[in-house]
Amino acid sequence: MKAIISNGFGGPEVLSLGEAAKPEINENEILIKVAATALNRADTLQREGKYPPPKGESEIIGLEAAGVVEQTGKAVTRWKKGDKVCCLLAGGAYAEYVKVHQHLAMPTPQKLSLEESAAIPEVFLTAYQALISLCEMQVGEKVLIHAGGSGVGTAAIQLAKLRNAEIFVTASKAKHQTCFELGANHAIDYKSQDFAEEIKEFTKGKGVDVVIDFMGASYFKNNLDVMGMDGRMVMLAWMGGFKLDSLNLVPVLSKRLKIMGSTLRARSVDYKKTLIEGFTNDFLPYFDKGELKPVIDTVMSWSAIQEAHARMDANLNTGKIILKVD
Ligand SMILES: NC(=O)c1ccc[n+]([C@@H]2O[C@H](COP(=O)([O-])OP(=O)(O)OC[C@H]3O[C@@H](n4cnc5c(N)ncnc54)[C@H](OP(=O)(O)O)[C@@H]3O)[C@@H](O)[C@H]2O)c1
Fold first, then answer.
1. Does residue 191 sit in the same domain as residue 251?
2. Which of 156, 254, 272 lies closest to 213, judged by CA?
3. 247 C-alpha to center of ligand 1: Å?
4. Ligand 1 geometric centre to CA of 72 (Å)
């Protein structure tokens, strides 16, 4: 089959269209003919050699895909040949075919194309896991979502909006309009404003209930500062570093904070299955109602893979970069 191949580690130039072995399914898996896949920040890290696939997973980059079921394993009960699905993968999505456990695929919303559906799995499931499963966000709470214009950020804003949250985002100025259109109430330009000062002013010193963080060290002190009583934070990445020289732990105790970290890629099938069932029941129907939408930055042919990765490297995307597997 055709696939995007990595010729060593490095910049976007190491990626090119080539050939790879077609996956073989086991009895619980389905084989999908991929119509579209989408970029994630993890893909650029894997390309650079900083985020290897979990043991036993495909070496091909790519964490999500949408397409049509081509073949089903003997024990598969959920799908039949011809079904349109999108799926969460631990790797292998930049390819003509992918295999996935039957419970890690979701039906594509009827009103969305396969290209649009490819933008759903990784970022919406990450946002669902962070806001709902881990931070147990309650209706009407105050939520701070960093990198509001990122794939995960744009998904999180929409999920929080459906729960009537008051939403604060940090993002570069050019991405504020999109954040507002998706439901953010306040947008902070982290390049020229101190987000902790802004939020303390907006909330009259009370702070927020939930923080979704991707920055790690560079935001940690300010994150502790803006969390209110019984605040919860989940850290999903450390784009701003992972070491702190000193830290005052007083707010953790005095405000009874819960600070968590999470990953998705290397989780067990059972964990991901539970997450996917929860998301499918709680939120998937909102795509057909028009109350959730995949936020798409660009749709490109997968032959333009180098251009697609360069765009993400430069932080130019607001939402998802989709690759058509044509
Ligand atoms: N742990 C997990 O389970 C999990 C799962 C999925 C994704 N993630 C992580 O979540 C993050 C978002 O992923 P994504 O695919 O949605 O990324 P994305 O669409 O590429 O967006 C990332 C955005 O973060 C902002 N940014 C980058 N460096 C920054 C910095 N130093 N300070 C502040 N903002 C910065 C940029 O927007 P601005 O223009 O606003 O700066 C950039 O566009 C990534 O770090 C990814 O690795 C974690």
1. yes
2. 156
3. 24
4. 35
Burial 203-234 (b: 16+ CB within 10 A, else e): beeebbbbbbbbbbbbbbebbbbbbbeebbbb
What's this model's pTM, rounded to 2 decimal places? 0.96
Instruction: CATH number of the domain at 315, please.
Output: 3.90.180.10
DSSP assignment of 254-283 equals HTT-EEEE--STTS-HHHHHHHHHHHHHHT
User: Domain end: 238, 261, 284, which one?
Assistant: 261
pLDDT in tens, 91-107: 999 999 999 999 999 99
- pLDDT interval class at 128 (50, 70, 90): very high
As a whole number of angstroms, the distance between CA 119 and CA 65 comes to: 8
Q: How many domains does the chain fold into?
A: 2
Ligand 1, CB cutoff 6 Å, lining residues: 40-42, 122-123, 126, 147, 149-152, 171-172, 175, 190, 214-215, 236-237, 239-240, 262-264, 312, 315, 317
* 90 and 139 fall within a common domain: no
Distances in whole angstroms, Cα of residue 252 to Cα of each of 81, 121, 240, 258: 52, 33, 21, 8
- In this structure, are 256 and 131 located in the same domain? yes
CATH number at residue 252: 3.40.50.720
Q: How far does the centroid of ligand 1 lie from the alpha carbon of residue 146, in Å?
A: 8
CA-wise closest residue to 73 among 113, 103, 94: 103
Domain that holds residue 250: 123-261
Residue 176 CA, ligand 1 centroid: distance in Å:
15
Task: Among 89, 152, 178, name the best residue to mutate to test ligand 1's pocket (greatest count of ligand atoms within 8 A of Cβ).
Answer: 152
d(CA 150, CA 135): 19
